Amino acid sequence: MRDEGAVEKRGKALVKPGVLPPVVLCDVTGRDLDGELIARPVEWDTSQFGPTPRILLHMPKRQKPGMPVPGVGDRALVRTERERDPEPNAPAYTGRVIKLLTRQKSRVLGVFRVNSRGTGGRIEPIERKQVGRELAVAEADRCEARDGDLVAVDILRTRLAGLPTARVREIIGAVGTEKAVSQIAIATHDLPDAFRPETIAEAEKARETKIEAEGFRREDWRSVPLVTIDPPDAKDHDDAVFAEPDDAKDNEGGHVVTVGIADVSCYVRPHSQLDREALARGNSVYFPDRVVPMLPERISNDLCSLRPDEDRPALAVRMRIDKHGKKIGHTFHRVMMRSAAKLSYQQAQQAWDGKPDATCAPLMQSALDPLLAAYRTATLAREKRAPLDLDLPERKIRLKEDGTVDRVEIPPRLEAHRLIEEFMILANVAAAETLEEQRQHLIYRAHDEPSVEKLNALSEFLATIGVRLAKGQTMRAKQFNEILARVRDTEHEHVVNEVVLRSQAQAEYTAQNYGHFGLNLRRYAHFTSPIRRYADLVVHRALVRALHLGPGGLPDTGLDELAEIAARISAAERRAMAAERETIDRLIAGFLADQIGASFTARVSGVTRSGLFVKLAETGADGFVPASTIGDEYFRHDEAHAALIGSRSGRAYRLGDNVDVRLLEVAPLAGAMRFEILSEGRTMRTSGIRGRKAKPGRDNASSSRKGPKGYKGRRK
Can you give the pTM of this predicted structure? Predict the structure, then answer.
């Protein structure tokens, strides 16, 4: 039977070809739309048996002590069982983990390069930490990979001399296309960039919602001149705004601000295919060359997008603000609206600056002027609330048609941007307040106060530039703003903004409210972008349920389930941010790859014992200067001053310093650049500075190269 191919030998067992054995070595590769772990066998012949089978891992609800608990990236022994009648596109096997072998064994990704002989090749790494550490691939292990393919590999062996060897496990795709850079980020972070066929089918079946449907009639707001104000290249428009003077006698000088938000909840119902895939994605991811959306285009760019002169369902909030800008009341409405115009930020700003175009001119009196008046009133309350006011300019990458970088620019921060931002914040606060009043569970957007450790580090740094911040005190956003105001227009402005930012906690989604420190708000929930954020969709459903606004409300969902959803979408948000940041780094590195040896003006953006991180002034590109390449002396890392200080000369490079650097090396696929510093550095008074002691033997152990008198080391 073996000779006839009916069975094959695996170890000491005989199994049917193309069928997994009862116990198999697997890698946990990801999760399905329901959050269940998916594994794949390590060994599988795709050329003979087709695609690698997927295994759905069953985990007991209550873990026994000592029971192995796998996670994505782990390698484990799994007991498998073949499904008799699996659903279409569902895993063909189920399994239970017997033993975990390695924890968090992330796959190694790189670009395959054929060697000069045409047989075998090398793997060019795409991770910054792996730059210069190529892997050799034999011809028998290349798995039909072609030159320029992005591949996942298994490392076979390492050697004392020569390159480590690897075997291609998976061919992800070619990187020679115009969208290659974002494709690397998508593969690296396992971003789901293709919708499942059943999800697409469900989206295509959706039909436009009528003003009366499923036994519920929406309010008719189609005569209200709501307008959308977005970036000029925006395709999906999920928020529209309108304002008018409040004619109530008890609110003289006040305004009524209306925010209409696309009603995604009427199309994406709980536990549907659209819903499960939206939760798995968590949010849309925006790259310079593409968008990986949370929802299919049929929903995001068509049915839900608030396009002008088209009837669209919306969930709207009407807010009253008094003459001091304070919100004194609000109501939610499920409506049918019709946007009066689609405007860009630049269009709206020009209109308010007295240069309205043909689209804006007819709307000045009815829509645009009242919006500006309401916003300027709202800023009075904002100033009194004093949210954290960091000045960190955002750079925008403009691409050519071939996907390469054309230029990097800093778009101006317009009053139109701040107007939309302020009205969205007001709407988000209103959503959180209403749900709390209705005793309805929700997902908050929370931002914790800085930790004591970070505040102490901030205090130590500020002391070095003459700004006092008492340790142990409770800080509010207003106090941070006072510090920022003190250093505005001084040489320390940029560095203090950076240090204050790094002292802050990371915002997250949570089912438990602990306020939003940065915005200085007691309660806050994302509500205004349900097309691109799953958290907003949950809040929409909660409002529909709590206020009895028709179908599509949040089903019975306990705090534990909401907490799990919040954790998943927080992780998805962090994943998206990392992917976006790395893509920008790779694009700029590719842009500068032909400028080896060129000099640039930069700012020190980070200081570590190993060297300096620098950010180029013109492009915002990040690079590294190894400490070993700075001068001919040993440089100590001083944490309090956030500086590297020369042990002989006292010459120092400090966080925020402006320096001149020369580009020495670029790894475009990894987004890594190495620089040489050209500036002489500053002279720092180091008396009394606490820092780290140099290790014995460093700096040639020469007494003449010891630190300046008074320099006291600190053991970490």
Answer: 0.81
